[in-house]
Design brief:
It contains 4 helices and 4 strands. The chain has about 150 residues and is an alpha+beta fold.
């Protein structure tokens, strides 16, 4: 046999192996890309659902207005003033939040925002809201909210 023919046969076989490897790699990559696209689409769906839930929760928190404290365990409605005299006063904190006034629980949960622009308030009020204004009664909370609402 001629060395040239042996070399050509080896090159042909090497080319065939490289071609088979390339085709199989391409097939695996296409499958991986398709799988990644599916995962991305599912992730976008989950993110949209989470955004919708966050919008709902924010709308509930922003639109919630403190009214009366929750009913007692026996189902009777309590008067806020009676609750305070009974030693179960509710503590809320008014403080600056996103350019407005936020009403927070003592634990720091946002209940609602007051539609008042902080930039329009006197400097003393802005400073007090930056520090946080604690209220210890429903009446005081509602009175302060009314003071700031336009």
């Amino acid at each position: 046999m001629n060395i040239g023919r042996i070399f050509a046969a080896l090159c042909g076989m090497l080319l065939a192996v490289v071609l088979i490897f390339s085709v199989s790699t391409l097939a695996v990559l296409r499958g991986t890309v398709a799988e990644a696209n599916d995962v991305r689409a599912r992730a976008e769906t989950v993110l949209e659902e989470l955004r919708a839930e966050m919008d709902k929760a924010e709308a509930i928190a922003v639109n919630a207005k403190p009214s009366a404290p929750p009913p007692a365990e026996n189902g009777d409605q309590r008067d806020p003033a009676a609750a305070e005299t009974a030693g179960t006063a509710h503590v809320f904190v008014l403080r600056a939040y996103d350019g407005k006034i936020g009403v927070f629980t003592e634990e720091g949960y946002l209940i609602r925002t007051v539609d008042a622009d902080l930039r329009l308030l006197p400097a003393a009020d802005r400073a007090a809201l930056e520090e946080g204004i604690r209220t210890t009664s429903w009446k005081e909370l509602l009175a302060r909210i009314e003071d700031y609402e336009p």
